[in-house]
Design brief:
Order of helices and strands: EEEEEEEE
Largest sheet: 8 strands, antiparallel, barrel
Mean pLDDT: 94
CATH architecture: Beta Barrel
CATH class: Mainly Beta
Structural class: mainly beta
Helix content: under 10%
Oligomer: single chain
Strand content: over 45%
Shape: globular
Low-confidence stretches: none
Number of strands: 8
């Protein structure tokens, strides 16, 4: 996943949900006080992201205008 323009930390406005998209195609999702609530892999095609967590659960989302829309959540890139 070289040159992954979406790699980095994405957070909900309240900071409760945090998606750390690693440049190697892995992610680590924090929820509240849990730093690593979910982990898995992801694939980005264009502006669409497909997640597969390590238990096999799948989800997806879309990047639009610098915002990640995922499963009813809105996440913003953290600087």
């Amino acid at each position: 996943m070289e040159n992954n323009k979406y790699a980095g930390m994405w957070v909900t406005r309240d900071g409760y949900i945090r998606h750390h998209l690693l440049p190697n195609g892995r992610y680590d999702e924090g929820r509240g006080e849990r730093k690593s609530a979910y982990r898995g892999s992801y694939i980005i095609t264009g502006d669409h992201i497909e997640y597969v967590d390590d238990t096999g659960f799948t989800a997806d989302g879309d990047f639009r205008n610098g915002i990640l829309y995922h499963a009813g959540m809105v996440l913003y890139r953290e600087d």
